[in-house]
Design brief:
The chain is an alpha/beta fold. The protein contains twelve helices and nine strands. It folds into two domains: about 140 residues, Aspartate/ornithine carbamoyltransferase (Rossmann fold, 3-Layer(aba) Sandwich); about 160 residues, Rossmann fold, CATH 3.40.50. Helix 2 links the parallel strand 1 and strand 2. The termini are close together.
């Protein structure tokens, strides 16, 4: 049994195998038969419990469909409807019940600490479905999307512009584990986690902090971005948006990247803020491809966790 908590916690060869498994399973998938089980998996007849403290569209849909295609089933719970969420039951007691009723758990939580606490209490695998610190499932499938559009990500140049958030932290970990260069351009005060940057440094990651977004995107193969205000962000919104105004992925910015660069975004997006409509809805954008690949990524992650 394996937990999928962060890309930094998993051996890089294993991560590569998960991406390859996602590619392999994707070939067998038929868009016309969304719930048919095409091949056996470790999730056959197993139950995935999903607990959400925050909203979700892609993560919820892709995990649910992934489990059906793997021959298993799901139960989705809103943390607010659970005794744990209301402070009426301890995490220890909740973990015992969850461990006996389900085979694998996905947790989307406000606090990364809660995820780690739960991982120590469960005796079944746990998947990080997004915390305030990271979003590893997203980056795993983003590697798949990059490679389908641009070929091997090894040695590629990617720029992250905008807010330095949970997704940026996972992008840094992905850059180290999948050997690509990541230029990070975020305004002062909105940088990604120092701990993650220090970890990347120790691992000799090719991470460049470049304050000027125009310099950060010069000649890159992909520009990545995310909403300026994340779920649960306790910030002065006006002040933050002002600090980020020069970090928009727009035509001028895309023109500085390599000629056939792609634009990537986690979604949901706020057009006119971190990205212009012209770019996200334009030819270089692969955002819908990214959203679809969450399904294929999740299938490989679940199968690996239950191995
Ligand atoms: N990208 C992503 O995780 O989307 P949701 O919040 O809709 O799950
Ligand atoms: N950074 C965003 C990602 C949403 C999928 C958030 O945490 O809200």
């Amino acid at each position: 049994m394996n937990h999928f908590l962060d890309l930094s916690q998993i051996d890089k060869k294993e991560l590569r195998n998960i991406v390859e498994e996602a590619k392999r399973r994707k070939k067998k998938y038929s868009i016309k038969k969304k719930v048919s089980v095409t091949e056996s998996s470790n999730a056959q007849d197993k139950l995935l419990l999903m607990i959400f403290e925050k909203p979700s569209t892609r993560t919820r849909l892709s995990f649910d469909l992934a489990m059906r295609q793997l021959g298993g089933q799901t139960i989705v719970m809103n943390a607010n409807d659970m005794h744990l969420g209301k402070g009426e039951e301890s995490i220890e007691d909740t973990a015992k019940v969850i461990s006996s009723f389900s085979d694998i758990v996905m947790f989307r939580t406000f606090s990364h600490k809660s995820l780690l606490e739960l991982s120590n209490l469960l005796n079944i695998p746990l998947i990080n479905g997004l915390t305030d610190h990271s979003h590893p499932c997203q980056l795993l499938s983003d590697v798949l999307t990059f490679e389908e559009n641009k070929g091997s990500i090894k040695g590629a140049k990617v720029a992250w512009i905008g807010d330095g958030n949970n997704v940026t932290n996972s992008a840094i970990e992905a850059a180290v584990q999948f050997d690509f260069q990541l230029n990070i351009s975020c305004p002062k005060g909105y940088m990604p986690s120092k701990k993650t940057l220090d970890w990347a440094d120790k691992k000799n990651g090719k991470i460049n902090i470049i304050q000027d977004p125009k310099k950060a995107v010069a000649g890159v193969d992909a520009i990545m971005s995310d909403k300026w205000i994340s779920m649960g962000d306790k910030v002065n919104v006006k002040q933050k948006k002002k600090a980020l105004k020069d970090y928009q992925a727009n035509k001028k910015m895309m023109n500085l990247a390599s000629k056939d660069a792609i634009f990537m975004h986690v979604l949901p997006a706020a057009r006119g803020e971190e990205v212009s409509a012209e770019i996200i809805d334009g030819k270089q954008s692969v955002v819908w491809h990214q959203a679809e690949n969450r399904l294929h990524g999740q299938k490989a992650i679940i199968d690996w966790c239950l191995d």
